[in-house]
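S1.2 Input.
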Amino acid sequence: YQRRVHGAEDAISDLPSTILDIGNRDRETRMLVDKALLKSKSIGKVEWSHIRSLDYIDTFVDTFSQAISLVKDIHPNKEIRDKATATTISLDQWSISKLSHNKDIYELYRQFASDPERTKTLDEQGKYFLQEKMKDYKRIGMDLQEKDRELIIQLNQQYSAISNQFQANINNSNSFIEVTKDDLKGMTNGFLDSHRKGDRYVLEANEPTYAAVMSDCSLSSTRKAMYELFLKRAYPANLVVLKDMIDTRYKIAHTLGFPSFSHLQLDGLMAKTPDRAYQFIHDLLPHLTQKANQEMELLRSNLPEGVTLNSKGQFHPWDLPYCIRLYKLKNLKVDETIIEEYFPVDSTIQGLFQVYERFFGLKLSKVNAKGKWHHDVECIQISKQITNGQDILLGYVFLDLYPRTGKYGHAYCSGFISPIKQSNGKNLPAAGAVVANFPKAAPEKPALMSHSDVLTFFHEFGHAINLISATCAEMTSSAGLKGMTDFVELPSQMLELWCWEPQILKMISRHYKTGLPLPDELIENKVKSKSIFAGYKYLRQSLFALVALEYYNENSGKLGKRVDPHEIYHRIHDQVCPYEIFDDNSFFECSFGHLDGYGAAYYGYMWSEVFANDIFHTIKTNNGLLDPKWGHKYSSTILCPGSSRDPNEMLHDFLGRPPNKDAFLTNIGLK
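S1.3 Output.
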């Protein structure tokens, strides 16, 4: 029943485009699964072919689930988004009882896994898959008594509804403020033109508007208003929803015999325990704190006009990005408004594609695709270049890069069709979408990307490369964007590092008027600025990681206790970021979307960045940044297996040794 992708339109057709289409696809999915499960009841002796078929059923449902989840995040029509959201909740709840917690399916897996005569015939991939599958079953309570299993199903279904509401509240937040031109001193003409509504200016609570105002506006009062607007998205609704998320996850973990949801989740990840994740962060904190303190002294001695500190020498949070930009401008001659003129979206993306093509041996080209959900969306066809042969189609990636009302407000990559391997050994093409919120074109300027936007695009398209490259997995559920939460960011983080290399910056930059690349002096200054405020950056990442761990630690939900997410965030903020005043009128936790998908594992961003730097350093020191031989080694070792191998083994195979922190610490200026 695999939906085959022969062209871009086939990929688009996998995304339901009407309310009727959503309903039909939902019914079709459930009907086909019911038929397959009915046949599974007639299985006598369980063979490996049966296990592969059961695994494929999971993938079949996941394909529809990924598609409908993307629709709820990006479709321009609110009624269709609402229908997709409701279907996502219903499908999640149905699949919990029908598939993931199905006792009959579990018994088939258990029978096969407990027979040494059959398991000894499996190859390494098969053994690893079965081992991890049985661990997963234990972590969802399939070995418990019937009463407890039923409770786990109910709690997981409750959580599905709660978490979908959490994300929907964030996506549907449409708050804005109206200001005058005088309130926007320091903003570029392009920004002013794109936000003018009559004689007023409308600032919506989206990522590009927020980032621009925080960085460029010279009026502290406007920055404060924008800061509190952005950090009140989904407030107060998500305060209650977040408490319900935390409580429900605690109940699930407690029923399964784990001290906390953190213990339950991390048991299946590289870190294994919350203690190890905490230790990872706390080992870095003294070094990061020392560096951040030095950075704050630099800013205090270079305070811009209009920025004031409190009696303790603390900064207001809405002042720090502005101070950092002006410091870089004054002392390092890094003018971000000039730099972005060298990164018009279209030519920058083409430049980045050249990097991918040379390193990975790929061919990327824009193609027309009928039926796109929005006129801004573009389609990229990706093929593998074969010497003296026909290129092999690997898949399609859709780019939805600009903000609009109701759209998911951050950046991510959706892999809604995985590169499933067929019985003949060939892979079906994959399909995914890169969703972002970059500034739109102004009347007299094309859409321009900041260097930060370039990093974001390289990061998210790195996930897309991972999606279409994960073709070595024999089991369908191991192909594509699958992997441990504290490892899955590595491929995209590693590719971000290319965008700090002078050679690469020359390749991908082109001034929107002159067509010239970034000047050498500007590149040199920009690269020098890379780690100058790394202490500030990574203390913020540590803050988010510790908050996520603390929300889901052993104290949450115990004895009916309702945690106070705002108090926890306030307390950890003051411990980790003492140089910054906590603003009681902001509620970051209400729009911290990673608290659902990443759960307690937000530390995984820094954890995997350690490995990413190690791999990048190895490639760079061997002059491999544009060398397809190194691209092949990286792709075949790290990307191609998907989640069919232990990440520790993949890292060791690539590096020839266990990974270490040296390259990471050097990269952020701590070594």
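S1.4 Remarks. The longest helix spans residues 48-74.
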